[in-house]
Design a protein that fits this description.
Elements: H1 3-6, H2 17-33, E1 35-37, E2 42-43, H3 46-51, E3 57-60, E4 71-72, E5 91-93, E6 98-100, E7 107-109, E8 132-136, E9 147-153, H4 158-174, E10 180-186, E11 189-194, E12 202-207, H5 214-220, H6 244-250, E13 252-253, H7 254-267, H8 285-299, E14 305-311, H9 334-338, H10 345-362, E15 364-371, H11 378-387, E16 392-395, H12 401-411, E17 421-430, E18 434-440, E19 444-445, E20 465-471, E21 477-483, H13 490-494, E22 499-509, E23 515-527, H14 532-538, H15 542-559, H16 565-580, E24 582-584, E25 587-592, H17 600-609, H18 620-630, H19 635-642, E26 645-649, E27 656-657, E28 670-674, E29 678-683, H20 685-692, H21 702-721, E30 727-732, H22 739-742, H23 770-781
Parallel strand pairs: 2-23, 4-8, 9-10, 9-14, 14-15, 15-16, 29-30
Antiparallel strand pairs: 1-3, 3-21, 5-6, 6-7, 8-23, 10-11, 10-13, 11-12, 17-20, 17-22, 18-21, 19-20, 22-23, 24-25, 26-27, 26-28, 28-29
Helix pairs in contact: 4-7, 4-12, 8-10, 10-11, 11-18, 15-17, 15-19, 16-17, 16-23
The structure holds zinc ion (ZN).
Zinc ion binds near residues 103 and 104.
Length: about 775
């Protein structure tokens, strides 16, 4: 198979037939367990694993919905040695009523209520197809209400304020009646609104310039004036000596406070302090969030609560400020961060790390809705949002559909709901030759150290348990493993049962309120020694591998000084190709790759050019945003972020996938580009002329009207399924917005290459094209 054939664009429906079939295998596995592994046949030794370049890894969606999954109404049976849960890979001796744990080989007796077990009478958890199963908590279903604390920026212009008020008031009307709601507003000062005060609205005003501890806060808000009552259990978290009356001053059931909240919102004024012309608005985002966290920590520790923060500009006051008020000081850029010349950056990040720690201990989530033309500090806040599993939405304005529609989706309880869940704990068990380096994704280490933990740490590591304060049906974490076995005796190589086992346990509060335990148990064959290359290739999931590399390269860029991402990716790819390619040494023309690896170079080419690696085209806030979404999405969505999909619409044929190349542009075509964050509908120049002439409104040009409509319908279908809602750009060839398409296309025809075809377009860039890239790759791989 030659490179030309490999150069096909992929993404939605874009695979060659053979490649599509291979991907279908992996998607089927994902459809059963919510897992995609880069290596589905696992390199068996440390050395083999390191030669495989892409680490042994898994992208796992812990609470992916499976309509046919069994939910068992009893407690799981656990191995008395390693605490792993009974699963289809356990070896069962029906006569002796014993099961052997596949992780530690411990023999466990079945308890009395499993007495009737036989090979014809299996409990559900032993059914071979139930590798993923859920256990319902045996206690009573918790009726603990969910808590939403709104933290709202008021130092924004009137127009933005109006947009925000209307969005908030709409979301309040969508809240479940029994959920508890609180409100904090901020600008120069922090205002904590007492919603339960009755007719006269009352607020506590706190200084924004200074961080305030939880105890100081409680004292200032007269929490102890009312004599604490023993906990009644009526209101969640009536502990900590706080009476439910105290709590009810600030957190009220949504059904009781809708009127009060709406009237407070109506009255909300823009921050009254005058802003001098050479100054930025005074905005104490950090203090406001810290007050929100402490209030929730006092009122509802340990039960599901979210801080929904709405920020309309840069934080300039108090802890967490990202820039001074003086407009002559610009907000930090990537260049400043690179040179370590952003004076507030490290201080602010440290502050938000502290906030993250507090929220993780309390089990609470920070969601960030950042809507401004300026940067607001997403890069600094990232740690608190990501460790708590919060949602993040970045838009230019509170009036933009990216914000408005995304916010609505958070609360909407239709079938496309996010399935927000809380209080998650994720734990793993593995065969003893595997260790865990860590997780890249929205979670926080619970610092449970043990024999499972690798010395090499990636992301949240040095633990085998993680807190997931917030998670939803799409949340996907990336586990990076280590193979520790040094060598394998020949006798073992011949054995037919060379299996590694993995078990993922997720405890979480289901959106119905009850506690659930999801158990996914996996088995993967390992190989070692000569002849194992074909087996490894057969199990290689190139999509999953590309996504793991994208998360890894982003992580390294953030944490390793002097890290060169392009060099690192190129080295990895060359190493992969020279190990797994077919070629005669020093003869580039003989080089070929199995279809199981053939798209991987293309993914790496696009990853090198993506927003995750080429950060200088974006602000630090945008980069942080893109990476937070990458770090929580599943493989299919992440692939679109790395390599956008392109569909072409024309009179000549049905809609079809097009090469992600500038050659796809033609005057009589419409292109639909999906780059995940942005969806572009691009009208070729002739199409645009016809549209401007209004042909689609004339009855004799119905076919043209349909051609115009088709990409719109397809775009709507994508937008409906995605969170955050993507930005939609509709543009014409040669128009200024066309850059949204051009930036994503392979520059096969640039101003320094000749012979671009008529009606087409050229890209002004010095980037290498895919063809040049492949050419280099082949030459280096065969050396
Ligand atoms: Zn065990």
């Amino acid at each position: 198979m030659g490179w030309i054939e490999l150069g096909l664009s992929i993404g939605r429906l874009h695979y060659l037939h053979k490649e599509k079939r291979i991907m279908a295998e992996f998607m089927e596995l994902e459809g059963q367990d919510g897992v995609r592994m880069a290596w589905n046949v696992v390199p068996g030794t440390k050395e083999e694993a390191s030669n495989c370049v892409v680490p042994v890894s898994a992208i796992y969606t812990p609470i992916k919905p499976f309509p046919n999954m069994s939910v068992l109404p009893y407690a799981p049976l656990r191995c008395r040695n390693c605490r792993s849960v009974l699963n289809p890979f356990s070896i069962v001796d029906f006569a002796a009523k014993i099961w052997i744990c596949p992780f530690c080989f411990q023999r466990n007796h079945f308890p009395a209520h499993y007495a009737s077990i036989s090979d014809e009478n299996l409990p559900a958890e032993l059914f071979p197809q139930y590798t993923t199963i859920e256990y319902q908590s045996t206690g009573e279903a918790s009726s603990v209400p969910f808590v939403f604390m709104f933290v709202v920026d008021t130092n924004i212009i009137e127009e933005e304020m109006a947009f925000l008020k209307s969005a908030l008031s709409q979301s309040i009307s969508l809240l479940p009646d029994n959920s508890l709601v609180g409100l904090i507003t901020f600008g120069t000062l922090v205002h904590v609104h007492e919603l339960g005060f009755g007719t006269i609205p009352k607020t506590y005003v706190l200084k924004g310039s200074k961080d305030i501890s939880k105890d100081q806060l409680l004292e200032q808000m007269n929490f102890f004036l009312i004599k604490p009552k023993p906990p009644t259990g009526v209101v969640a978290g009536a502990r900590d000596g706080l009476s439910s009356e105290s709590i009810a001053r600030f957190l009220l059931p949504a059904s009781d406070c809708e009127f009060t909240l709406n009237s407070i919102l109506d009255e909300l004024q823009k921050d009254p302090w005058a802003i001098p012309a050479d100054q930025r608005a005074s905005r104490c985002t950090g203090t406001a969030l810290s007050v929100a966290a402490s209030l929730l920590g006092a009122c509802v520790p340990g039960s599901g609560a979210r801080i929904l923060s709405f920020v309309g500009g840069p934080s300039t006051e108090g802890p967490g400020a990202i820039v001074s008020k003086n407009l002559s000081e610009p907000i930090r850029s990537h260049k400043d961060l690179d040179k370590d010349s952003a004076p507030n950056y490290h201080k602010a990040v440290k502050f938000y790390e502290g906030l993250a720690k507090q929220l993780v201990i309390q089990g609470h989530v920070l969601d960030l809705f950042a809507c401004a033309l300026d940067q607001v500090g997403v890069a600094e806040l990232k740690v608190a949002v990501e460790r708590t599993g919060g949602l993040v939405v970045l838009a230019e304005s509170f009036g933009h559909s990216v914000f408005k529609d995304s916010l609505r989706r958070v609360f909407r309880l239709e079938d496309k709901e996010l399935g927000l869940s809380s209080n998650g704990i994720f734990e793993i068990n593995c065969s003893k030759d595997i260790k865990v380096q860590g997780i890249l994704g929205p979670c926080a280490s619970l610092e449970k150290k043990g024999p499972l933990c690798s010395d090499t740490i990636v992301g949240q590591g040095s633990t085998s348990a993680w807190k997931m304060c917030g998670l939803d049906q799409a949340t996907s974490i990336c586990l990076i493993f280590d193979i520790v076995k040094k060598e394998i005796p020949d006798a073992m190589l011949q054995s037919s049962n060379n299996q590694f086992y993995f078990q993922f346990l997720t405890y979480y509060q289901h959106s119905t309120g009850e506690m659930r335990l999801r158990v996914t148990s996996l088995s993967r064959r390992w190989v070692a020694g000569p002849g194992s290359i074909q087996d490894l290739i057969a199990g290689f999931d190139q999509e999953a591998a590309a996504v793991v590399m994208a998360r890894l390269v982003s992580f390294k860029m953030e944490t390793e000084a002097e890290f060169d991402p392009i060099r690192w990716l190129d080295k990895a790819l060359i190493h992969m190709c020279s190990r797994f390619g077919d070629y005669q040494k020093d003869s580039p023309s003989t080089f070929s790759l199995s279809p199981r690896l053939s798209i991987f170079p293309q993914f790496m080419f696009h990853l090198r050019r993506s927003q995750f690696v080429q950060v200088f085209n974006n602000s630090p806030d945008e980069t942080a945003y893109f990476r937070m979404i990458l770090n929580r999405e599943n493989v299919a969505n992440s692939v679109v972020m790395i390599q956008p999909s392109l569909i072409s619409y024309s009179f000549q044929s049905a809609p079809e996938p097009a090469l992600l190349d500038v050659a796809a542009i033609a005057a009589d075509r419409i292109l639909l580009l999906d780059s995940y964050f942005t969806i572009v509908i691009f009208h070729g120049s002739t199409i645009a002329q016809w549209r401007k002439a209004g042909y689609h409104n004339q009855p004799e040009h119905q076919a043209f009207a349909q051609l115009l409509q088709a990409p719109k319908d397809d775009a709507d279908a994508i937008i409906k399924e995605r969170f955050p809602v993507p930005r939609l750009v509709i543009c014409d060839q040669h128009g200024s917005q066309a850059r949204f398409l051009l930036a994503k296309l392979n520059p096969s025809a640039t101003y320094n290459s000749d012979g671009h075809h008529p009606g087409g377009d050229i890209i002004f860039t010095d980037d290498v094209s895919f063809e040049v890239f492949l050419d280099h790759l082949q030459r280096l791989a065969v050396q």
